[in-house]
Write a structure and sequence with these properties.
The chain is mainly α. The protein contains 15 helices and no strands. Helices cover 78% and strands 0% of the residues.
């Protein structure tokens, strides 16, 4: 148990260091954006006095390392700053947008996860059959197409030609739950296709790996029934890699929605980040990037810890 706690603590410490490194990369990336942020915000007709005042407000008159530590200390206190375009608190802007992103990711995951596990199990149990080949071809095709291409094809078919689904996924707080679900059908399908294909293939590989292991062969030689081998030996031992893949794909769903949100004009955090970059709204860009990074790192840590807890070999390592 002590070794298990040490391993978990090591993973958490590594995650904290990763967040720190990512914060530095985000800050450096924003600093590397071409042009003068003050001029980009105020325009070419701004007076020198106004430019100087805005640079002071943005702390551009300070050395980069001073501005970085000032930003990190503010974030640690929960202060994400104010938007430069509308002077609203960044935390207030991001809160609603991030909840929309989580709503879209959760909707895609609710359909994709159980369906992927089921199809992966069927492909593994009927390996080399027509069903396995059909699922493999379909999953490879789904992975091959980029999200924006799939999104535009779905819009052309279901929104433009058939007119049965909205092509713009516009939601707001006054909409009912059913209305929101209807509005996000197309972006949900777009996200689901790629994640479903990846999870299905990894589930298939994990179960096949277990079914070809020596102790499964021994169980077959002892006359253990196929159903018992599958439900009592194969699936429980395949849980660790399957859980890891599911959570990793959930992390991708949350942080990989930027392109999909832009295609469907969905009011999520990804769309906000793109708009903030175009407007040079530095506090929003930095905060959005950091939240995406922290979410991805947190879900990766969760996958890592659950892999340790569900895998006896990892629990007893070191």
């Amino acid at each position: 148990m002590d070794s298990l706690k040490k391993m978990v603590v090591k993973r958490l410490a590594a995650g904290a260091v990763t967040v720190l490194v990512v914060s530095i990369l985000i800050f450096v990336g924003v600093e590397a954006l071409p042009g003068d942020p003050a001029t980009a915000i105020l325009g070419q007709q701004a007076t020198p006095e106004n430019l100087a005042a805005l640079r002071k407000e943005l702390k551009l008159d300070m050395p980069p390392h001073v501005r970085y530590f000032s930003w990190v200390s503010d974030v640690a206190r929960g202060d994400l700053g104010r938007s430069l375009t509308n002077q609203r608190p960044v935390a207030e802007m991001i809160g609603w947008r991030f909840s929309n992103t989580l709503f879209l990711a959760l909707a895609a995951a609710t359909v994709a996860v159980p369906l992927a596990i089921l199809l992966g199990m069927l492909a593994a149990l009927y390996r080399e059959s027509w069903l396995d080949k059909l699922l493999s071809i379909s999953s490879l095709s789904a992975i091959s197409f980029p999200e924006f291409f799939v999104g535009y094809i779905l819009i052309a078919i279901f929104a433009v030609k058939l007119g049965i689904l909205p092509g713009v996924a516009s939601i707001h707080s006054g909409m009912g739950f059913g209305q929101k679900l209807l509005a996000i059908v197309l972006p949900t399908i777009t996200l689901m296709l790629v994640v479903l294909a990846h999870m299905m293939r990894m589930t298939r590989a994990a179960i096949i790996g277990i079914l070809t292991s020596p102790y499964i062969e021994m169980a077959k030689l002892k006359g253990v029934g196929r159903r018992r081998i599958i439900y009592h030996h194969a699936i429980p031992n395949a849980l660790a890699p399957i859980i890891n893949v599911v959570i990793m794909d959930l992390a991708w769903l949350v942080v990989g929605v930027v392109v999909v949100e832009v295609v469907f004009v969905y009011p999520g955090l990804g769309q906000l980040l793109v708009d903030a970059v175009s407007k040079r709204d530095l506090p929003v860009v930095q905060a959005s990037g950091l939240i995406f990074a922290c979410t991805y790192i947190l879900l990766n840590l969760t996958a890592d810890v659950l892999s340790i807890l569900t895998n006896p070999k990892l629990r007893t390592a070191n």
